[in-house]
Amino acid sequence: MSLKCLFLVSLLIYAGCNKTTQKTETSDVKTQIKEPQKKVDSIKTRNVMLINNVQIFNGKDEKISEGNILVVDNIISRISAEPISISEYPTAKTIDGKGKFLMPGLIDNHMHLIMCASTKQELMAPDASIDTIESKAKIEAKQLLLRGFTSIRDVGGPVFNIKKAIDKGETEGPRIYPSGGMISQTSGHGDFRTPEEKSRRFGGKISAGELLGFGFIADGRDEVLTATRENLRAGATQIKLMAGGGAASDYDPLDVAQYTFDELKAAVEAADDWGTYVTVHAYTPKAVKRAIDAGVKCIEHGQLLDEETIKLLADKGIWLSLQALDEAPPTQTKLVREKKHQVVQGTENAFIWAKKYKVKLAFGTDYMFNPPGNKNQNLDYLKLKEWLSPFEILKMATYDNAQLLALCGLRNPYQAGELGILEEGAYADMILVDGNPLEDIDLMGDPEKNFLMIIKDGIIFKNMMR
Ligand SMILES: [Zn+2]
């Protein structure tokens, strides 16, 4: 078996319990997609769009205001209850919003675009290559946009090429905040080697996963610094480390802490020098407390935290990036199913305590390796109904998640305006909804039917208003 195949097999072991219980309808690409328009500088042909008569939810405040919204190029230029003149823009197009609900584009803060876009069979194919993996991810990126996701935070995987292609307008997809390869200690949650593969320090070779850019197995301060800087060099907006055991991996128990304080601190220093932050995969109080002490700014998961540690997150202003994961399917090993069950059980308390102590809370879906299931991404947000009001869900999916995106500070690739909010000067990333999700949040679960227009960067990617 080639190194690559070994890697893919171990990746599948790692990810096998993700979302395989979801529905398996194939997604059907809408035909209303409008080709992105080329941006041009001439004022006569600028991309100007006036949307009249909409109910505006700005993403942040629990109210809606009736009005009109003017987009010039990729920025919201004006919002007004009064008519907006477009006489200075002869090529402007006007859209009648017909009193529909306008909100900011959705944000998913915990994605692995590359890994959610391919099936097991595709990854195990003998001819699997980074090119084919990327082409699958490009198709998924377009689908993401059609589900209303205009920005995502990618917390691990070789996504840099796709991010660049989207930004250049060469392919369609959301704005991507990439982390690059996940950084893991030997034996950690991101050590995807098969049991027979030896460490490259002790007679082995560099693992296929590392060569493909999925991760780094880095031990000691020096290697962690190099891995962090490799990601920063490639354009990472934040750095992702594995700081504790994982539910879906077969080798590391859920309860273990990973990386010493010094190793975590090394990554934090390198990221901080680059103007950004470190986020860690961690479930337990021990792992999370050590990460906080080392200067980590965000915790991914955290479903096994106790009340005291969740309060500590609030006191220290640390972000908690939560998911609402499903139980592992019966096809998984007993060990993995038991670990996953613990995580699912802990989700309830994590949300309740995070809300009680007003922790900075973000949300993401963490889908992997079941492309037909990706269609259910919006439904994951509806699981939040158990703990959050419709307003709180919409705010988390837009404004709150955008605040975590912006935590990358100087490394933020999108600094011309704010994301996750509809206000003058913000990016024109928005969705026109048929109905009011503040009253009926279930509308969000069927984007194909209920999202009438999807606009990203001032460009219409879906339009059912004609
Ligand atoms: Zn993940």
- Could you report the average pLDDT, rounded to the nearest whole number? 90
**Low-pLDDT sequence parts:** 1-33
Bound molecules: zinc ion
Largest sheet, in brief, is: 7 strands, mixed
Briefly, what CATH class of the largest domain?
Alpha Beta
Cα radius of gyration in angstroms: 22 Å
Give the N-terminus to C-terminus distance in angstroms: 54 Å
Integer count of domains: 2
Helix content: 25-40%
Classify the secondary structure makeup into a structural class.
alpha/beta
Under the CATH scheme, which architecture of the largest domain would be assigned? Alpha-Beta Barrel
Shape: globular
CATH T-level fold name of the largest domain: TIM Barrel
How much β-strand is present in the residues?
15-25%
The total strand number stands at: 17
Order of strands side by side in the largest beta sheet? 3-2-1-4-15-16-17
The H-level CATH homologous superfamily of the largest domain, spelled out, is Metal-dependent hydrolases
Task: Provide a count of the helices.
Answer: 14
Describe this protein's structure.
- There is one protein chain.
- The chain has 466 residues and is an alpha/beta fold.
- It folds into two domains: 3-25 and 107-411, TIM Barrel (Alpha-Beta Barrel); 43-105 and 419-463, Roll (Urease, subunit C, domain 1).
- The chain is 32% helix and 20% strand.
- The chain is built from 14 helices and 17 strands.
- The strands form four sheets. A seven-stranded mixed β-sheet has the order 3-2-1-4-15-16-17. The protein has a five-stranded parallel β-sheet with strand order 10-11-12-13-14. Strands 5-6-7 form a three-stranded parallel β-sheet.
- α7 packs parallel to α8 and α9 runs parallel beside α10 (307-316).
- The longest helix is centred in the last third of the chain and has 23 residues, at 334-356.
- The protein is globular and about 70 Å long.
- Mean pLDDT is 90; it is low at 1-33.
- Zinc ion (ZN) binds next to loops.
